[in-house]
Amino acid sequence: MQTATNLTELQDQIRERYSQLSKRLKQVAEYVLDNAQSTAFDTVAVIADNAGVPPSTLIRFANAFGYSGFNEMKQLFRKNLLEETTSYTDRVRLLKELDEDIEPADQPSTILHEFSRANSQAMHNLALQIAGEDLSKAVDLLVKAKSVHVIGLGRSFSVASYLAYALRHLNNRVFLVDGLGGMFREQVNMIESEDVLIAVSFTPYAKEAVIATEAASKVGAKQLIITDSQISPLASMSDICFYVKEAEVDGFRSQAASMCLAQTLAVSLAFQVNDAKK
Questions:
Q1: Could you tell me the residue range of the domain that residue 88 belongs to?
Q2: Closest among 228, 190, 240, 194 to 212, alpha carbons compared
Q3: Is the pTM above the cut of 0.70?
Q4: Low-confidence ranges of the chain (pLDDT < 70)
Q5: pLDDT tens digits for 107-150?
Q6: CATH number of the domain residue 19 falls in
Q7: Helix and strand counts by DSSP (H, E) for the chain
Q8: Burial, 176: exposed, middle or buried (Cβ in 10 Å; 0-12, 13-18, 19+)?
Q9: Residue 159 lies inside a defined structural domain of this protein
Q10: What secondary structure does DSSP assign to 155-199, as a single string?
Q11: In a domain? residue 26
Q12: What CATH number does the domain containing 204 carry?
């Protein structure tokens, strides 16, 4: 079993294996599933006391799920807590509360250098991990599409809106599924079998994006997914799925790699459309 890289994946693994755990490990499983925030904030000693087990049991529990120690597992709870905090000022406060020894980059020039360094690595990894064959298949799907529908909500909205903007400049029939005016269902119902849905969503995944992929699947439309994990609920619906690992600095994730991929798709499509006209 692969070690979980996010809290949702870990929680799913705990539920799946719960019946196989020993009595003490079940006590830990119940506690961490029901007390995610306490698990993120409290010390190992406090968590063990609250769960009614010795601290060594927490270590055994973490080892059972592929972690070297419980503190390594705790990082998933902390990361999830930061991601669910939408206010940036609250996120900075939480970052300091979660680890008093941490010194977040707080000077603009330092933040710029940190994001530049992290994004440079993310871009390098993107170029290595995205298969050229998959890019070609994705462009081919877009060339053949009668209409293209694009959805991306929350932090994914900027990537989705750029794709809609860029594809419209190629004279494509493009619809941005944004739910404006409470018209989400109506927009999704416009997807037809000869269309392509581009869905962009990262953890925590937008439920509207999942609904859109399910609707597209029912009518037989092709789907191009941009997400961050193989266990993403969108991945199972895809014809082509791109997994993008974004840079992260002090709990703040970038979008540079996703935007780079979106631009690659748009420009590649432009070249293919131009070649077809010759």
A1: 7-98
A2: 190
A3: no
A4: 1, 83-106, 250-251, 274-278
A5: 788 788 878 888 888 898 899 889 999 999 999 999 999 999 99
A6: 1.10.10.10
A7: 13, 7
A8: buried
A9: yes
A10: GGHHHHHHHHHHHHTTT--EEEE--GGG-HHHHHTT--TT-EEEE
A11: yes
A12: 3.40.50.10490
